[in-house]
Amino acid sequence: MKLVTYVNTFLNEQIKRTSNTLTQKTPEPKKRANLRDVAKVAGVSVATVSRVLNEPGVVKKDTLEKVQAAIDALKFVPSAAARAINSGRTRFVGALVPTLDNAIFARFLAALERTLSERQLSLIVATTDSDLEIEAEKAQSLVDIGAEGLIITGAAHSDALHDLLNRTMLPAIVTSFYDAENPLPTIGYDNAAVAQLALQHLADLGHRRIAVVHGPVHDNDRTRTRLSGLRALPWTGELTTYETEISHRGGAEGARRICSQPQKPDAILCLSDVVALGVLFGLQAEGITVPDDVSLVGIDDLPSSAVAVPAITTVHLPVSQMGEKAADALARWISDQERPSAERLEGRLMERQSAIPLRSI
Amino acid sequence: MKLVTYVNTFLNEQIKRTSNTLTQKTPEPKKRANLRDVAKVAGVSVATVSRVLNEPGVVKKDTLEKVQAAIDALKFVPSAAARAINSGRTRFVGALVPTLDNAIFARFLAALERTLSERQLSLIVATTDSDLEIEAEKAQSLVDIGAEGLIITGAAHSDALHDLLNRTMLPAIVTSFYDAENPLPTIGYDNAAVAQLALQHLADLGHRRIAVVHGPVHDNDRTRTRLSGLRALPWTGELTTYETEISHRGGAEGARRICSQPQKPDAILCLSDVVALGVLFGLQAEGITVPDDVSLVGIDDLPSSAVAVPAITTVHLPVSQMGEKAADALARWISDQERPSAERLEGRLMERQSAIPLRSI
DNA sequence: TTGACATATGTAACTAGTTTCATCAACCTC
DNA sequence: GAGGTTGATGAAACTAGTTACATATGTCAA
């Protein structure tokens, strides 16, 4: 309101407008000043104003000051849409993650958003519910509305998404997954290695019968890769897998299923910490003590794992670092056409209290 | 430039382009078709194509089909930026939340995003780290890049943000907070009432000495309101407050501080479930049993609270519903100029195992 | 003094849509 | 058959920026 009044008054001397205002019930939603307004106020051409914004070096000092003053007076902010239309740069990217409900993605996104915003890029978050069809749809609409790049989770996607990426050749980075051979640059950990780290630890502690509790394998290549990593480890123990929902509830249910088996495992390996904490609760509910009755190992290293009682031994995944690196790589790819190379982040075993050597009977 | 090449090929049958391609090292990032291209292919004017997109009813059937065919053939998708420039509608809104690290906000955002996307609106998430200065800055840049509306958390904000909202009169909805008198529409729960619900429950169970563990009050009106709600309850017991970080770690530390006091409280009331779970862990680490030694109550009703052992008695906050309602209200406000009225969502006590009647000695 | 060149700025054409207004044909009424 | 109305479409102006090109001025060397 104030702005419109201001501009009109200023440019067209429509003083009568003041009385208009009185008769209006809805205080009209004020327009913001545009380049032409600034140019008129500063007494220069629109080109000069544009130069002040984009290459101030070429503008003479006192012209620059005049324009700057006009910009301040009108509180002028260039329209992002108009800029986007010419430059093709919309200054936002999209991230496709399975869910916000798992802290591991929330932490990743927090780092991603922080780093992107340092690069003057906004982030649009789209959740896919771990459904590759939904993922492809949301990717399409991100592209349609002008995303300059995508962050996607995992390497396996629907044909529709692969097509989209091939057609548009949009900068897109795969995260939570490392594979140097992947057609798209991957920035993440080697999921097979990460799972092996956890299993090897249990093996080193002497455990032989191990229950693996994991999330859905459908539409989730990270879980599949972790599982095949486990199976690929040269080790002669016995693995039993339990698929469940990735949630505390899912973990608790996994624990119940394990307890209903005739023979208890030596240890339980959970492919994510959310599930591990759920399993811990589930075991407690069944009166089973960790680690005395059974050892427990997770993967992710969520903050809760360090605080739980017993503290959960897990594999630390550097998701914040992954967010920063993915943001940096994507920002550079967009601005310099510099396609990043794959980057492998290492998981690290965090030995805590939930896994102890197998008691010899 | 690239666009010219593409259009030429398509429209003027410049077959030589094939050989061009061979000499090019970089497979050019093919630009998408625009309105003019579609119009040319369909043999109609740009106005007609625009009508097909926006008011297909007024276009004759066979013209419509011709245009539709051209759109499909060229895989034409209208540029969001160009639309935004004329209509002023950018079709995205911004949400300012303190953090993604607390599941309560992650759950809220998930519902918000889901509902907004049904209304063809994208969501840009900005985290403020519970800092009102950062909040104002991020709000400003959301507005600068064209957000059509804002979702903000809590009613207390910096002058800069209030100024921004007054100046632009942008649709903005306050969530996680109910106050019918607030200048902006609020959609949320009455934080004082919610805290009272929890305290009343403990009071009803006979507890008299209650430790309250809560997050920072600085820059957080929700916590302040909950605390003053507790103090306003007509009740003669004794409250001791412990401020800590909102995290599992913060809760555990709170538990340690409580345990270091000469006299133990009857019960512990945590103003958020994340803290409550941390307190539970902290107490377990100190060898104190919940609920036998001390009762514990939280607020939020995160999924983990139902699964924890003991399951944590808490006040359920309908955050998913809040996300849906906020999204609906904001979408309607934006499209119909229909300013929503405040909406109060009720918290609900979830009685579980962590709080039991005070044992008479 | 003139030409060569750099510097600073303006004009107008561009980006990709929407929208106003004009045009034209078809149909209906008198 | 003239006039009025409606329906469908197009030309061109408009949104708010960027940018290619033109122009005006100033500096310096020949």
UniProtKB/TrEMBL annotation, chains A, B:
Residue ranges occupied by any HTH lacI-type domain in the UniProt entry = 33-87
Q: Name one GO molecular function term.
A: DNA-binding transcription factor activity
Which UniProt keywords are present, listed alphabetically? DNA-binding, Transcription, Transcription regulation
The family database entries (Pfam families) matched by this protein are listed as: LacI (PF00356), Peripla_BP_3 (PF13377)
Q: Tell me which SUPFAM superfamilies the record gives.
A: lambda repressor-like DNA-binding domains, Periplasmic binding protein-like I
Record-annotated membrane-spanning stretches: none
Origin, by domain of life? Bacteria
Annotated SMART domains: HTH_LACI
PROSITE patterns in UniProt: HTH_LACI_1, HTH_LACI_2
- List, alphabetically, the InterPro entries matched: HTH_LacI, LacI/GalR-like_sensor, Lambda_DNA-bd_dom_sf, Peripla_BP_I
**Name under which the protein is recorded:** Ribose operon repressor
**Species the sequence originates in:** Ruegeria denitrificans
Lineage in the entry? Bacteria, Pseudomonadati, Pseudomonadota, Alphaproteobacteria, Rhodobacterales
Q: Which gene encodes it?
A: rbsR_2
